[in-house]
Amino acid sequence: EVQLVESGGGLVQPGGSLRLSCAASGFTFDDYAMSWVRQAPGKGLEWVSAISWNGGSTYYAESMKGRFTISRDNAKNTVYLQMNSLKPEDTAVYYCRVSGSPYWGQGTQVTVSS
Questions:
Q1: By 3-state DSSP, what share of the chain in percent is helix, strand and coil, each rounded to 5?
Q2: What is the DSSP string of 92-107?
Q3: CA distances from 61 to 1, 5, 18, 31 (A)
């Protein structure tokens, strides 16, 4: 059974940082690219970032470039999202997913507020 478990969300002030983690199990982790997607209150899903199977290629939505960094540790079956210079508009539930698949985690809430 594929499982994706996100953690690391919380309340942070504008300009602050958070590091999200997504622990994967139930599939061969290093066979797949991984992605982060978010959903802000009352809005649709927004793609955030993706990383290739070996971490050699990374991709970001324009508004996240320079602020967010995606990485992975295949030995730990974990993908990360380091988020810096957070803004109130980054408030959302953040989900990790196996790219191109129906497998998603349960999400972790990120709230950016003073």
A1: 10, 50, 40
A2: EEEEEEETTSS-B---
A3: 30, 22, 18, 23
Are residues 5 and 69 in contact, defined by beta-carbon separation less than 8 angstroms?
no
End-to-end CA gap in the chain = 40
Of residues 1, 55, 50, the one with CA closest to residue 25? 1
Q: How far is CA 114 from CA 9, 33, 55, in A?
A: 16, 35, 34
Torsion sign, CA atoms 18, 99, 60, 29:
positive
Q: Which residue is associated with the tokens 């139930």?
A: 26
The pLDDT tens digits of the residues spanning 81-101 come to 999 999 999 999 999 999 988
- 10-61 pLDDT, tens digit each: 999 999 999 999 999 999 999 999 999 999 999 999 999 999 999 999 999 9
Q: Collapsing DSSP states into helix, strand and coil, what is residue 19? A: strand
Length of the chain: 114
The first and second tokens of residue 64, run together, are: 């996240």
